[in-house]
Design a protein that fits this description.
- The structure is a single chain.
- The chain has 7 helices and 17 strands.
- The chain has 308 residues and is α+β, with helices and mostly antiparallel strands.
- Strand 9 and strand 10 form a beta hairpin.
- The chain binds flavin-adenine dinucleotide.
- The site of flavin-adenine dinucleotide (FAD) has 32 residues, from strand 3, helix 4 and strand 13.
Amino acid sequence: MDLPDVLRDELLVHEGAALGPLTTLGVGGEAPWVVEPRRREELILAVRELHAAGLPFRMLGHGSNLVVSDAGVPEVVIHTRSMKNIYHHGEQEHALRCEAGATLARLVSVAYDMRLSGVEGLIGIPGTVGGAVAGNAGGRELAIGDVLTEVTLVEPDGAVRVVPCTAEDFGYRTSPFRGAVVLDGVVQLRPGERDAIFARMKDTLGAKSATQPLSAASAGCMFRNPPGGSSGRLIDEAGCKGLQVGGAQVSPRHANFIVNAGAAAADDVRRLVVEVQRAVRAASGHDLPLEVEWWGPFDDRTPVVGAP
Ligand SMILES: Cc1cc2nc3c(=O)[nH]c(=O)nc-3n(C[C@H](O)[C@H](O)[C@H](O)COP(=O)(O)OP(=O)(O)OC[C@H]3O[C@@H](n4cnc5c(N)ncnc54)[C@H](O)[C@@H]3O)c2cc1C
């Protein structure tokens, strides 16, 4: 099946696009097409036309929570990186409407410039608003679901639906919007002093960079934490810190991060994940479910638990 002509005419289209460079871990094969909407109308068009043509698709933000298989994916990928506007909501005071492809870094910085407080705790998370909404990304004190008041979705027929939401709709890295197409989200902030906002940004980033390998190529935390526990600690206690398979390595800095130590293949990451899960099960009896999402076909023998 071919991509509808109207999408070739109206959108940026990359044929046979390598997905590794579009992710922070940097592994994986190609998608048949990556389409890049620049405006909300283009995202709506893409969703409607792909649906009408019977072409399945995946949404891609900053690719910071993904492992793409070496074989790539058979689906079309809609990449939101060019939809990054953030503006005043207009009706709600101190609220910002953020397009799906706006990065959290940009949101934190725009809020700071506008003397608005409430999203400092998201600093250092390298994803987009769309990806964060889909997974309720967050840190020690704040997840994006805590400040979201509404999310705009695109339905398969191209209809736009505004969904109000509150913190109660979200859980630890879970969101009612996973699997939907997020067009934008509104965050409710409050007026603040620049110095106080900056101090909180600095504290959050300082704590994160003291323990996490922020400059290494990774997909963030590979495993979900068990209730009240820490996967990083379990992996460390199982003796896996620094363990390497091919180019994939358990970060010596933080054991819940698997880093691309140089030319890793997705299969190296898979084998290392399996190794870590085995070691932790043997050492503590815990099964470590994945936090990171896996795209495309992986080896059937992968005894990965909790994969979405
Ligand atoms: C160094 C590092 C540190 C990290 N620290 C944290 C942290 O502290 N806390 C945390 O929660 N996460 C953290 N992460 C993980 C990651 O940054 C977050 O999960 C982030 O929210 C993912 O956003 P993304 O845009 O990269 O999404 P992607 O990885 O591109 O996609 C992730 C999921 O979101 C979906 N998605 C993306 N855009 C849309 C859209 N517009 N509509 C619908 N679905 C969409 C995708 O289809 C996929 O299912 C870290 C990652 C790294 C590499």
